[in-house]
Amino acid sequence: MPDARPIGVFDSGVGGLTVLREMVRRTPTESTIYLGDNARAPYGTRSDDQVLEFSTESLDRLVEYDVKAIVIACNTSTAVAIESLRRRYPLPIIGVIRPGASAAALATRNGRIGVIATPATVRSHAYQRAIHDERPEVEVREHPTPTLVP
After folding, report:
1. For residues 12 and 38, what is the distance between their CA atoms, to the nearest angstrom?
2. Is pLDDT larger for residue 149 or for residue 4?
3. Can you name the residues that pair with 9 across neighbouring β-strands?
4. pLDDT digit string (tens) for 104-116?
5. Same domain, 59 and 112
6. Within a domain: residue 24?
7. Dihedral sign computed on CA atoms, order 39, 82, 74, 63
8. Domain of residue 31, CATH code
């Protein structure tokens, strides 16, 4: 029998609704719960400790709904906190950086990729690492944009 529990989707605000929309389009029979932490958004200019704290609190909340998996639709939370969150929770946790990095690595024709992201995401170099996992020869330039997320 299929697992009817919902999939939790978390973002620091409303940007993750685009991820949720694509999930619903691709898996229309799945139930989802969206948690957007609008009260503390944006996460991108916060310290790594704050990002981890806020992300943990949000995932604790989703786990209360007995979700079967969690999608972190926040680049900053994925970059800073996903590994700690995976160690804490015994369920699949999927971030958004690897899919984006893979798409960029496949798409570049000149071997150069620019990453515009929040300061915390750039500080982590998560995109650079993920892109280099796929294509080590690609030049990755990261630029922090504190006002990217209002």
Report:
1. 6
2. 4
3. 34, 71
4. 999 999 999 999 9
5. no
6. yes
7. negative
8. 3.40.50.1860
Residue 136 and residue 142: Cα distance in Å, rounded? 15
117 contacts: CB under 8 Å, gap ≥ 6: 44, 75, 76, 79, 127, 142, 143, 144, 145, 148
For the four alpha carbons of 3, 96, 133 and 88, in that order, the dihedral sign comes to negative
Number of domains in the chain: 2
CA–CA distance, 32 with 18 (Å, rounded to integer): 13
Q: What is the pLDDT of residues 54-64, one digit of tens each?
A: 999 999 999 99
For residues 117-145, average pLDDT: 97
| Residue 134, C-beta contacts closer than 8 angstroms, at least 6 positions apart | 101, 102, 105, 106
| Runs of H (alpha helix) within 75-125 | 75-88, 97-107, 119-124
Report residue 73 as tokens: 């639709």
Asked whether the whole model's pTM tops 0.90, one would answer yes
Task: Kindly report, residue by residue over 134-145, the tens digit of the pLDDT.
Answer: 999 999 999 999
Q: Are residues 111 and 40 in the same domain?
A: no
Q: Would 2 be classed as within a structural domain? A: no
Distance (Å, whole) CA 60 – CA 142? 31
